[in-house]
Input
Amino acid sequence: MSGRPPPEQRSAYPHFLEIPTRWNDNDSYRHVNNAVYYEYFDTVVNRFLIDNDVLDVERSAVIAVVAETHCRFFSQIAFPSQVHAGLRIAHLGTSSIRYEIGLFRDDERTASAQGHFVHVCVDRGTSRPVPVPRKLKDLLGSLMVSQPTEC
Amino acid sequence: MSGRPPPEQRSAYPHFLEIPTRWNDNDSYRHVNNAVYYEYFDTVVNRFLIDNDVLDVERSAVIAVVAETHCRFFSQIAFPSQVHAGLRIAHLGTSSIRYEIGLFRDDERTASAQGHFVHVCVDRGTSRPVPVPRKLKDLLGSLMVSQPTEC
Amino acid sequence: MSGRPPPEQRSAYPHFLEIPTRWNDNDSYRHVNNAVYYEYFDTVVNRFLIDNDVLDVERSAVIAVVAETHCRFFSQIAFPSQVHAGLRIAHLGTSSIRYEIGLFRDDERTASAQGHFVHVCVDRGTSRPVPVPRKLKDLLGSLMVSQPTEC
Amino acid sequence: MSGRPPPEQRSAYPHFLEIPTRWNDNDSYRHVNNAVYYEYFDTVVNRFLIDNDVLDVERSAVIAVVAETHCRFFSQIAFPSQVHAGLRIAHLGTSSIRYEIGLFRDDERTASAQGHFVHVCVDRGTSRPVPVPRKLKDLLGSLMVSQPTEC
Output
């Protein structure tokens, strides 16, 4: 585990969403199951897109599908904690967007988990990659960080 | 479907918990999957018990296990809605507790779904039913409704 | 809990699907969470419909939505058990279908849990109830039991 | 997306577990949600440990907690597919084990998704890292590949 970057602070993320844990997020070890962290990732990203009117799941001609995800777990989270999910953009490619996410438990200052989530924009009908739409690109500018940390 | 009771109002429930939906609560029909409603039931009940210090998942000598659950679905809920979960007690037996739950979408006044959730108190070691502990009984009084509606 | 019907035998169900448990089906009590039983219900019903070519999630003009579900829990199931989900039809209405399901753990002869699951056929565009399509009706005949047990 | 390694063949994995998809594995895009792939990862790893008697969730003095997970998604999987989860060991450290997993849909020869899953052995009471137990180490030898592919 040497060489692991230390967990980040909340200030590393320009946008946050609060996500309460649920009873059955916990697994047999009585902490939130690792797969559930990716439900939090998915929720903070898609809420950001839907709340800002750049994604309509029923109608958008361009949708974003997940190409890659990754998470490092630093300290456990357990129901009934509140998760504060921080979101930023680390890289904006022609068709792809690399989101980085930090999950903070209750009022803790350092992240319990951090990861990334790569979306690729595709044509809904053909599933072929297409350029990131202009409106989405403009929105994502607000989540860009000047010195993206690779994680 | 005739003979179904109509959905209730929020005033039928003395206690509420807000539960935000998650991206993957939705299934292929783009509404919250029926099984997920029971995650909401479980969460409102267990948050009530934990927040009021009558359940400690690691240490309580008496725990509550689920004996029966039921839900009627009146209108669909879909991500990114907020669910407001109402909770009341309809019956308190020697070992068992019948909770009734109403789920209200966003700022709607009538329930999108209603159901019940029966807990049986058991000894953690033997899994045998035991009387509802005094402290829990006292707490549940605050959720009793004078005219419990059977649902 | 008096007055509960006893758990049934496998012979009460004409159709079975084997569903392996998953690590995170277990919750903090190290048994399968109650909400997950409804994932098993949903899976045995929809696999039956899809495998028999009466449901196409992308294209069917008539789809079935869940109006009501119910489950009684008799004995716990825990990962890594295999669940054998038994399925029968208890009632076939104009628009609605009442499935009954028994979940049997590993090679046990009596059900660990039993419940029902009511589907209502609706027009995909309007979401209004429509009669159960002929092809589906014919298929469901194979799951009818002569003396449906109300549960 | 340039520079992505191509998906692997089944022969890259010495051990397999079949995991059927469930109805609600699918999300609004009617394919298996990305978080659910990690449920498959968790299940193939823990079934391997439990089936081989090196993990007892209730009693083992040493348990394994997840330190890091990663997945690349090559092609979609959707209910009602069968997933064949391939498992190998890429690295065995003092306290940590790096599993690599490939998920193959139905009878396809190349992986639909690939990832890794890092377990750290910890003392159950203190949660501090401890050496990988001898019995587990011996077992994992059977999953070692001579030329582990970094993914």
Remarks:
- The first helix of chain C runs from residue 34 to 51.
- Chain C has two helices and five strands.
